[in-house]
Structure formats: C-alpha cells, structure tokens
Design a protein that fits this description.
This protein has 231 residues and is mostly helical. Helix content is 52%, strand content 0%. It is built from 8 helices and no strands. Helix 2 runs parallel beside helix 5. The N and C termini lie far apart (72 Å).
Amino acid sequence: MAYSFQPYINYLGVHLVLTGFFNLFPSLLVPKVLDTFLFPLDSLLRAISVTGTIALFDNPNLSPAFRSMNTPFGHLLLGALASASGGISMSSFSLFSPEWRFSTPPILNAGLWTSADVWGGALAALLFSVSTHSQAFTMPTLDPSKLGRAYFPLNLIPGFFRLFLQPPLSSTSKGSDFHLLASSALSIQHGKALAAIALMAVFGSRVLYTHWLPRTPQVESRKLKTKPAKN
C-alpha cells in the first residue's frame, strides 16, 4: 500500500473536492449534516483501506515479518488499524490544533459508538476474509486442541457453532478444510462490497443513534437526588 498511488488518489481527491465544496457552502459545516450525508463516503474509503491491506497477503513478494500477520487475529488487528489508526494518531497528538501535544488516545475512553471506527474495521476485515475464503480462516480441523494458537480466536468458537462449519461447496477446495461460510467463496470485488456494506451499516447506525434518536430525559431523576430531605 505504501508504494501504491491509489490510497493517495482516493484520500487526496476526496479532501480537495470537499474542501472546495465547503469553502463555497460554509453553512453546511455542521456535525449533524456532515455525519449524515458523508458516512457512506467515509465507509467506502475505510473499506478500500481495510480490504487493500488484507489483500496484500496475496503478494508473493511480501516480507516474512508482515506475512506472519496472516492469521485470524492478524486480519482483525490490521482491519482495525487500517480503519482507525489515522484518526487515533491525529487525536492523540492533537494534530487538529496549531499546538501539537500528546494526550490520552481517544480509544481508551471510547464507548460503543465512539469506538465504531475500530471494531467496525475489524468487522469489515472479518467479513472480507471469511467471504473470500482467505487462507487465514481456513481450518484443517474443527478440534480446537489441534488448531493451535495461530488460529486464535477461531479455536475459541463454542462446539454448538462448529455444527455450522462445513467444507466448502466448491469442488476445487480441499475436502478436509472448513470455513466460517460453507458456501462457495466470493470474488475479491464482492468481498470488498460486503465489507463496505458492513461499514455503512455500522456508521449509519452510529449517525442514527448520535444525531437522530431522541434521548431519554434524566432531569426528573436528578431532581429527586438533589431534593433536600424534610425535617
């Protein structure tokens, strides 16, 4: 990815277009408007970053150090990093402000939806790798004692769910291999589309929860707590 022009074209192109647009319409620079209308584009760009990083494992010239990450946990970790590492780094070093300084990484204080960039990226990597039958998610056996630590966290799947892990329907695959999806492998392009749809669902739900769903008022409960007791 570092030697490819595609990420730079994707992000710089979007940055220049949006910068020019909001210079013309500065009244639209409202978090509610930005999050509502731009979350599909944000999801698409993050999906391209996540799937592009995972697809590097198909490169025969990949360094051994990076290839050692070709495990289920490695895919989840790389998906989270590809999706959220930029934002976490900028917030941790206060790069949005003129005075740079180090502060607590926001992920350490994040809740469910504020950490969606992280776990959403891991989810996108999982769906992409599983749907395309990545080698990292190909299990030679369903016995967790024989899988070893390289298959973490697949070796922690409860026995009930292992009933749904079957050999693939494709006749070109080994009969002894098991996948999380028993159907035939999706193409790379369809796997990328699935990852993008998953991120859109996650980010769309975050926008809905953050900006559009009504909040439960807690004024009455606070009044009851602060009300002085009668003598």
